[in-house]
Every structure is written in C-alpha cells, then in structure tokens.
TrEMBL record:
InterPro entries: Aldolase_TIM, Class-I_DAHP_synthase, DAHP1/KDSA, DAHP_snth_FXD, DAHP_syn_2. GO terms for biological process: aromatic amino acid family biosynthetic process. The keyword Ligase does not apply. NCBIfam families: DAHP_synth_Bsub, PRK08673.1, PRK12595.1. Residues 1-67 form the DAHP synthase ferredoxin-like domain. Residues 88-327 form the DAHP synthetase I/KDSA domain. This is 3-deoxy-D-arabinoheptulosonate-7-phosphate synthase. One of its GO terms (molecular function) is transferase activity. It comes from Allisonella histaminiformans. It comes from the Bacteria. Keywords: Transferase. PANTHER family: CARBOXYSOME FORMATION PROTEIN (PTHR43018:SF3), PHOSPHO-2-DEHYDRO-3-DEOXYHEPTONATE ALDOLASE (PTHR43018).
C-alpha cells in the first residue's frame, strides 16, 4: 500500500503519520518527490482500510500496490533513483560507462587497460577476480590476488571498482578491499541467501539478469536485496538464453523500457556478454542508450586474441575510445550527457 501526501504537506504531518504506522507494526519507506511525499507500507496491509487514512487532511490518496515487488516498484518510489557509487551517480542525466577486462590476468594487463579506459572517459573500472565458469576446468580467476591487482590499478587511475561477488563468505574480503560496487552475476541472480547478505551491506549492488529470468523474477531478486535495507541497487540487462545461436545470448533491449516503467531503479546494459562478438558491441551499446539505458558495461582487453577468457567479445582500447566518441554524439540526442 502507498499513501500519497498532498502537495507541500508539512514535515510534521508526514512524520506523525509515519510514527502512527510504525506503532501499528508497519515498515514505512518514504519517497520525496519535487512537491509530494509518498509513503510505502511494508507488512500485512490487507487488514487496513484505505478510507481510514483519507480523514487525514494532508493525505491526497491511498492505493494498493499490485506488484509482488514493493520497494523496487515505481508505485512505491515514483521518482527515478540515482545510486551514488563512490561519487559516480548512476541513474541521473549523465550516462555511466563501466569498462575493463573480463578477468584480471597480470598487473601489466589490468594497469594498461585501466589507464586506457580512464583516458577514454570510463566512469568505473570493471574486472573479474572470481569467475563463475560453466566448466570446472576453465580459468576461474586469480581470486584474492586478482582483486588486489584490480584495486591497485583502480587507485592509480582514480576510478571506482565493480567486480563480481560469488559467495557470501567473501563479503569480508570485499569490504576490507573497499570494493565500490558489488556485482551479483547472472548465475547468482536467484541465490537468495547471497542476495539477503548483500542486502545487509551499505555498498551499492549491480544485479545482472539471470540467463533465463523473466523481468518479474529479476525485479523480485532486487526486492530480496532491498527488503534487507540496501536500497542502492542497479540492474544490468546482459542478454537471455533463447533458441538463437548466432549470438552468445539474445540482448533484450525491450527489457530496459519495461523495467523503466515498472521500477525506479537504474538500468545498464552489457552488450559484451549479450552478443559474444566484439564486432557487435559498439552498435548494441549505442542501441542500449537509445532505448533508455542509464549506461553500459563492456569488456575491454589490450590483447583480446590472447585473453584468458571471453576474448571473442572483448574490444580493444582503440575500439573503446571510438565507442566513447560515438556515445558523446548520441547522448545529447536522447537528452543525456557523457
């Protein structure tokens, strides 16, 4: 249930209503718009009668939220959320570009790529230290050693870091290393214990869509995180598994538009994992921004032909620089900045 306060309702009236609802056993999520406040109620609201609140002179209307996801719903939070990742604002007018190698291989490799993407205008440095792979015999990442390399390279070029967390037992390490944005990968999108664990942190979370997940399932996974108190969630469309074999996955750009209508959370797109082909990354990145995405995440490698994993979908620093130039031209056309 949501309660919409009248325009310019005094703070005391909002706080008094919040106190009343808390005393009745409900959790209240306040959303502040330009001139109105929306209160979202979490709990067994079926026993409430909407008419009980209409007697309050500062209440404009009361509505029941039909979606199973409450905190992630735009009904609860009509304004777009802007997530602060160590000073980088995701979801605002400025587009965000996350770039770096699929996996960290050597100090030289990650430093070279970090400097290149920084020079081209990337907002965050991405890189995999812990790698979930389909085969147990594939390269699984350098783990803590790779994470140290990533953090050091990011500090040198002064970029925040985004990297994947695979299990809750590594949360302490991520906090100790001060990872700026914790990525939950596609294969862990419905690892509910892990979602609850990152939901108890005060660190932004990038939640990738599962390989076969519906949009509702994706948003419900975001709800798991937000229900534990962490409201700083960024969604990432990275392609879904279909019958098509020409690409690694099928990039669902329609999901960006659907999610933007249903949720207030920022959405970025990963054209690298979605397509599996470096020659497609630029065009699909442009299409993602045209579709309304708040940014992109792409794989950049200084020598993709000899990458330890996912070389086929990794673009070179030169191609990345060209892409950034094209995005700068596109951004103002769609009302954004880069």
């Amino acid at each position: 249930m949501i309660i919409v306060m009248k325009q310019n309702a005094p703070l005391t009236a909002v706080e008094n209503l919040e106190t009343e609802l808390n005393n009745r056993g409900f959790k209240v999520s306040r959303s502040q718009g330009e001139s109105k406040v929306v209160l979202g109620l979490i709990g067994d609201t079926f026993k409430l009668d909407e008419r009980d609140f209409l007697g309050n002179e500062w209440v404009e209307k009361v509505m029941r939220v039909q979606e199973p996801y409450k905190r992630a719903s735009r009904s609860f939070h009509p304004q777009n959320s802007i997530i602060d990742v160590s000073g980088v604002k995701v979801g605002g007018k400025k587009l965000v570009v996350m770039a770096g190698p699929c996996s960290i291989e050597t100090p030289e490799q990650i430093h070279t790529v970090a400097q290149a993407v920084k020079n081209s205008g990337a907002s965050l440095l991405r890189g995999g230290a812990f790698k979930p792979r389909t085969s147990p015999y594939s390269f699984q990442g350098l783990r803590e050693k790779g994470l140290d390399m990533l953090i050091e390279a990011a500090k040198d070029v002064q970029l925040p870091v985004v990297t994947e967390l695979m299990s809750a037992d590594k949360i302490g390490t991520f906090l100790e290393k001060k990872v700026d944005l914790i990525q939950i990968g596609a294969r862990n999108m419905q690892n509910f214990d892990l979602l609850r664990a990152v939901g108890r942190l005060n660190v932004p979370v990038l939640l990738k869509r599962g390989l076969s997940a519906t949009i509702d399932e994706w948003l419900m996974s975001a709800e798991y995180i937000m229900s534990e108190g962490n409201q700083n969630v960024i969604l990432c469309e990275r392609g879904i598994r279909t019958f098509e074999k020409a690409t690694r996955n099928t990039l669902d750009l329609s999901a960006v538009t659907v999610v933007k209508r249903r949720s207030h959370l920022p959405v970025i797109v990963d054209p690298s994992h979605a397509t599996g082909h470096r020659w497609m990354v630029e065009d699909m990145a442009m299409a993602a921004i045209a579709a309304g995405a708040d940014g992109i995440m792409c794989e950049v490698h200084n020598d993709p032909e000899h990458a330890w994993c996912d070389g086929a979908e990794s673009i070179t620093p030169e191609t990345f620089d060209h892409l950034m130039g094209r995005l700068r031209q596109l951004a103002p056309i769609v009302g954004r900045e880069l």
